[in-house]
C-alpha cells in the first residue's frame, strides 16, 4: 500500500502495513533482534532484497543483497558513511562509531587504525594472552580429568576463551601492568552495562516513546553502572598518564597502548573513557563469539580439525612472530568460512544518508536508517554453493571464495562483497585485520596444544540472536592435551 510515488516518481522500499515498528511484537513484549530477524525474513521473502520498516517517523531500510550493498557502501560511500544521532548515547557518545562523518571522525579513526597496525604492540599482547589461555585450558582439563570416562576431560571452554580475549584487548587498550582485580571489575562492568542496553535501540530502530518506556525501569541502574565504569577507567588512564610522565619503561618515547595514543591527542576525560569503552566493547564480544563458533565447528568437523593440525605442523619450530607473519591459507580459510557462516554481527551498525538517493528502483530519503543483512548475504543461495555447509576449502585456491576477503577492497567489484562480517566502505570495521589475525593465532595454538572431541550429546549450533549472535548453548567439549 505504501508503494505510492514518493520522490521523482520513485517509491520507498516496500514496508508492512500499517507502518508500525516490528509489527506484531510491539504490543506484547519489547521488540528484540529475534523478532527483527523474523519480520525481515518474511519481508524479504515477499518483496525482495530491499525493504523498509518504520522506526517512529523515519523509515529503516534493510538491504540483503551484495550487489546493492556494494553500490551503497562503496560506490556511494560518502553518502552512506553517516550515522544516525541519538538523544542518549551514554558511554558511547564520543566513540568513533557515533562520530559524525567528518574531520573529528577522521582523526579518531586514523588514530585507532594506526595503533592497531603497530605489529610489535599486537605481538607482545598476544604472546602473554595466548600463553595464559593455554595454561588455563590445561588446568581446566587437569581439574576435569578425574570426572572423565577416558579420552580426555570434558570442559566448557567459553569462559576461558572470553578471559583470554578480554586480557588481550585490555593489554592493547590500557597497556600491560593493569592488575587482574581491576580487569575483573572492568569486565564485570562491561557485562552489566551491556545487559542494560535495549538491543534494538543499538540499531536506532525504536521510536523515542518506546525507548523511554523500555529504558525507564533500568535507567538508574544504567547510570550507576556507567558512573562506576567512568571512575574505574579514569583511574586506569591517570595511572597510565603518570607512568608516561615519569618515563617508566620505553613507553614515554614510544606510545604503545591505545590510551597512550589518546593522551597524545589531548582529549578530555569523558572522550577518552568513551573511546576506551568503545574499543573494549567493539573488540571483545565479537572476537570471543567468532572464536567460539570456530572452535565449535572444529569440534563438529574432526576431519577439518586434523587437516588444520597437519597444516600448521610445519610451523612448530617457528617463533610466535614468525608464525603470525607467515601466510597460512588453510587457517585463514577456516576463519573466513566461520565468519561467513557465523558472523558475530548479523547486521552492521546503523548508517544514514545526508541526501535523498536512488538505490535499485527505490528512493532512500535523507536521514533514513539504513542497514545491511550481514548473515543473509553470507548465506545467500545464489552466491554460495550449499551455503549452510561449513567448507573452508571454498576459500582455497580455485574455490568459489578465493579472492574474497573479510573486508571488500575499495577497488573490487560486487563479487568482493559476497560476505561482509566487518562491513565495507568508509565505516567498515577498523579492527578487522587485528581480529582475523588474532583469531587465526588463537585457533592455531588451541589446535596445536589440544585435541577437541565432541561429547556424546554433540554440539548445539543453535543461534542466540542479539547485537552479537552467540551460540545459544555455550560450547561443551572433550579436550585432550597433546603431549608434544
Ligand atoms: C571478530 C571481530 C569483529 C567483528 C565481527 C566486527 C564487526 C564490526 C562491524 C559489522 C562494524 C560495523 C561496520 C559498519 O557499520 O559499516 C564494526 C565497526 C567498528 N568496529 Fe568492529 N568488529 C570486530 C572487531 C573489532 C575490533 C578488534 C575493534 C577495535 C579494537 C573494532 C572496532 C570497531 C569500530 C571503532 C567500529 C566503528 C567504525 C566507524 O564507525 O567508523 N572492531 N565492527
How would you concisely characterize the structure shown here?
The chain has 484 residues and is mainly alpha-helical.
Primary descriptors:
single chain, 484 residues, mainly alpha, Cytochrome p450, three-stranded mixed beta sheet, three-stranded antiparallel beta sheet, 15 helices, globular, binds protoporphyrin IX containing FE
| Unreliable parts | none
**CATH level-3 fold name:** Cytochrome p450
Apparent shape: globular
Tally of discrete structural domains: 1
Q: Class by helix and strand content?
A: mainly alpha
| CATH level 1 name | Mainly Alpha
Q: For the record, what is the CATH homologous superfamily label?
A: Cytochrome P450
Cα(first) to Cα(last) distance is 67 Å
What string gives the helices and strands in order? HEEHHHEHHHHHHHHHEEEHHEEEE
In CATH terms, what is the architecture?
Orthogonal Bundle
Query: Total number of helical segments?
Result: 15
The description of the largest β-sheet is:
3 strands, mixed
Query: What share of the residues lie within helices?
Result: 40-55%
Strand arrangement, largest sheet? 1-2-6
What is the number of E strands? 10
Rounded radius of gyration (Å): 23 Å
Q: What's the overall average pLDDT, rounded?
A: 86
- How much beta, percentage-wise? 5-15%
Task: Name the hetero compounds present.
Answer: protoporphyrin IX containing FE
What does this protein structure show overall?
The chain contains 15 helices and ten strands. The chain has 484 residues and is mainly alpha-helical. The chain has one domain (33-481): Cytochrome P450 (Cytochrome p450, Orthogonal Bundle), CATH 1.10.630. The strands form four sheets. The chain has a three-stranded mixed β-sheet. Strands 3-10-7 form a three-stranded antiparallel β-sheet. Helix 10 crosses helix 13 and helix 10 crosses helix 15 (432-449). The longest helix is centred in the middle third of the chain and has 32 residues, at 269-300. The termini are far apart. The model has no long low-confidence stretch (mean pLDDT 86). It binds protoporphyrin IX containing FE. Residues 96-97, 109, 112, 278-279, 282-283, 286-287, 290, 344-345, 348-349, 421-423, 427-431, 434-435 line the site of protoporphyrin IX containing FE.
Amino acid at each position: 500500500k505504501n508503494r505510492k510515488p514518493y520522490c521523482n516518481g520513485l517509491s520507498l522500499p516496500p514496508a508492512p502495513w500499517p507502518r508500525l515498528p516490528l509489527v506484531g511484537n510491539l504490543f506484547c513484549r519489547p521488540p528484540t533482534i529475534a523478532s527483527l530477524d523474523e519480520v525481515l525474513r518474511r519481508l524479504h521473502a515477499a518483496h525482495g532484497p530491499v525493504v523498509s520498516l518504520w522506526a517512529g517517523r523515519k523509515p529503516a531500510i534493510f538491504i540483503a543483497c551484495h550487489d546493492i550493498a556494494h553500490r551503497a557502501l562503496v560506490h556511494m560511500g560518502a553518502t552512506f558513511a553517516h550515522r544516525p544521532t541519538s538523544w542518549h548515547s551514554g558511554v558511547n557518545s564520543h566513540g568513533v562509531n557515533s562520530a559524525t562523518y567528518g574531520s573529528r571522525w577522521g582523526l579518531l579513526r586514523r588514530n585507532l587504525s594506526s595503533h592497531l597496525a603497530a605489529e610489535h604492540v599486537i605481538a607482545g599482547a598476544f604472546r602473554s594472552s595466548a600463553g595464559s589461555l593455554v595454561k588455563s585450558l590445561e588446568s581446566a582439563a587437569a581439574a576435569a580429568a578425574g570426572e572423565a570416562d577416558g579420552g580426555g576431560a570434558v570442559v566448557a571452554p567459553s569462559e576461558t576463551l572470553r578471559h583470554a580475549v578480554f586480557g588481550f584487548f585490555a593489554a592493547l587498550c590500557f597497556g600491560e601492568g593493569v592488575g587482574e582485580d581491576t580487569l575483573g571489575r572492568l569486565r564485570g562492568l562491561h557485562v552489566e552495562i551491556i545487559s542494560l542496553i535495549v538491543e534494538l535501540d543499538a540499531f536506532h530502530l525504536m521510536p523515542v516513546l518506546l525507548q523511554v518506556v523500555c529504558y525507564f525501569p533500568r535507567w538508574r541502574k544504567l547510570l550507576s553502572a556507567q558512573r562506576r565504569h567512568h571512575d574505574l577507567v579514569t583511574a586506569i588512564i591517570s595511572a597510565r598518564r603518570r607512568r608516561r610522565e615519569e618515563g617508566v619503561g620505553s613507553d614515554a618515547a614510544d606510545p604503545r597502548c591505545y590510551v597512550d595514543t589518546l593522551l597524545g591527542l589531548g582529549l578530555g576525560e569523558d572522550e577518552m573513557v568513551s573511546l576506551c569503552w568503545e574499543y573494549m566493547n567493539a573488540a571483545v564480544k565479537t572476537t570471543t563469539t567468532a572464536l567460539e563458533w570456530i572452535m565449535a565447528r572444529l569440534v563438529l568437523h574432526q576431519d577439518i580439525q586434523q587437516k588444520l593440525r597437519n597444516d600448521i605442523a610445519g610451523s612448530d619450530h617457528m617463533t610466535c612472530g614468525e608464525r603470525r607473519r607467515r601466510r597460512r591459507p588453510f587457517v585463514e580459510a577456516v576463519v573466513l568460512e566461520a565468519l561467513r557462516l557465523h558472523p558475530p554481527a548479523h547486521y552492521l551498525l546503523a548508517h544514514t544518508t545526508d541526501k535523498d538517493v536512488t538505490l535499485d528502483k527505490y528512493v532512500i530519503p535523507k536521514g533514513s536508517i539504513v542497514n545491511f543483512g550481514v548473515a543473509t548475504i553470507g548465506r545467500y543461495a545464489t552466491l554460495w554453493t550449499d551455503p549452510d555447509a561449513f567448507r573452508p576449502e571454498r576459500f582455497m585456491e580455485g574455490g568459489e571464495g578465493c579472492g574474497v576477503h573479510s573486508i571488500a577492497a575499495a577497488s573490487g567489484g560486487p563479487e568482493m562483497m559476497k560476505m561482509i562480517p566487518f562491513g565495507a566502505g568508509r565505516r567498515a570495521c577498523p579492527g578487522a585485520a587485528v581480529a582475523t589475525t588474532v583469531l587465526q593465532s588463537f585457533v592455531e595454538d588451541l589446535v596445536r596444544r589440544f585435541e577437541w572431541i565432541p561429547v556424546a550429546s554433540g554440539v548445539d549450533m543453535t543461534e542466540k540472536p542479539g547485537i552479537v549472535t552467540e551460540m545459544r548453548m555455550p560450547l561443551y567439549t572433550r579436550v585432550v592435551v597433546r603431549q608434544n
